[in-house]
Amino acid sequence: MQDTVVTVEGRFEHRHAAERGTVSLDVGFACDVRDDAVRRTTHAHARLVDQVRSMYDEAAGPVTRWASQRLAVWAQRPWNDQGVQLPLVHHASVALDATFSDLARLAAWVEQVAVLDGVTVLGVQWSLTDATRTRLLEDARERAVADADARARTYARALGLRDVRPVAVAEPGMLGDPGPGSPGEEAPMLAAARGMVADSADARLDLKPEELTVAVRVHARFRAS
Predict the structure, then answer these.
(1) In this structure, which long-range contacts are made by residues 85-92, counting pairs with CB atoms below 8 Å and at least 24 apart in sequence?
(2) Is residue 31 domain-shared with residue 118, that is, in the same domain?
(3) pTM of the prediction?
(4) Averaged pLDDT score across all residues of the chain
(5) Shared-domain flag, residues 52 and 108
(6) 158-197: per-residue pLDDT in tens?
(7) Do 183 and 172 touch, CB atoms closer than 8 A?
(8) 20 to 30 Å CA-CA from 151: which of 120, 167, 187, 223?
(9) Which stretches does DSSP call E strand in the chain?
(10) 32 and 113 share one domain
(11) How many other CB atoms are there within 10 angstroms of residue 126's CB atom?
């Protein structure tokens, strides 16, 4: 009797609380005089950098990583509502990112700096540590393969077959059977600024990161008889 080929997709998904939060800020001013825009921007930026440096400790936190972009300066001539072009307005802007391991400290700091002149909170991205992500991925891979095996055996039993033997296992698309979507592993989802909610009772910023997902899909082929 000829073997029956069974091809399936196995899946598994972990959900885990965020362990890191990276806040992105933009510091900038618009002034009639170029030097004023640059001076106000660099001064405000320097204050924030001093705060971040005082919290920075790669191992212990609360800030484990930070980065600052170069100062950008430009000018534009705006138009008023009557179609008249106005004098030049000079802009200066610089971005700052800080990654926190202590999410409560992150929320407190964002609340503090969000009200400063010239500071715009662009958002917060939530993530896992490399160690946690690696551990969850390894476990999810094993469970996805087990899920594929269980699916194949269910289909085989439905056909009255009992002997099920694995032939190949691969990430989606590598067996020539691409399913919906292409990645076999989905990186942890990054919940952005939508997690930022102001509590109307005391006007405090409440950061509520969503759980992150680490998902794996595998394609597997079996022979059944």
Answers:
(1) 87/32, 88/32, 89/30, 89/31, 89/32, 90/30, 90/31, 90/32, 90/33, 90/34, 90/36, 90/37, 91/28, 91/29, 91/30, 91/37, 92/28, 92/29, 92/34, 92/37, 92/38, 92/40, 92/41, 92/42
(2) yes
(3) 0.77
(4) 87
(5) yes
(6) 999 999 999 999 999 888 765 554 445 554 443 333 344 3
(7) yes
(8) 187
(9) 4-16, 20-31, 63-68, 72-76, 89-100, 119-127, 164-170, 185-186, 196-199, 204-207, 212-224
(10) yes
(11) 23
Q: Do 170 and 96 belong to one domain? A: no
Beta partners for residue 198, in sequence order? 205
For tokens 């190949």, name the residue.
168
For residues 58 and 154, state if they share a domain.
no
Question: How many domains would you assign to the chain?
Answer: 2
One domain for residues 109 and 148: no
- pLDDT tens digit sequence for 118-158: 999 999 999 999 999 999 999 999 999 999 999 999 999 99
Tell whether 98 and 135 lie within a shared domain. Answer: no
- What is the CATH number for 141? 3.30.110.170
Q: Provide the domain limits for residue 59.
A: 21-126
Please, what's the b/e burial string for 67-91 (b: 16 or more CB within 10 A of its CB; e: otherwise)? ebeeeeeeeeeeeeeeeeeeeeebb
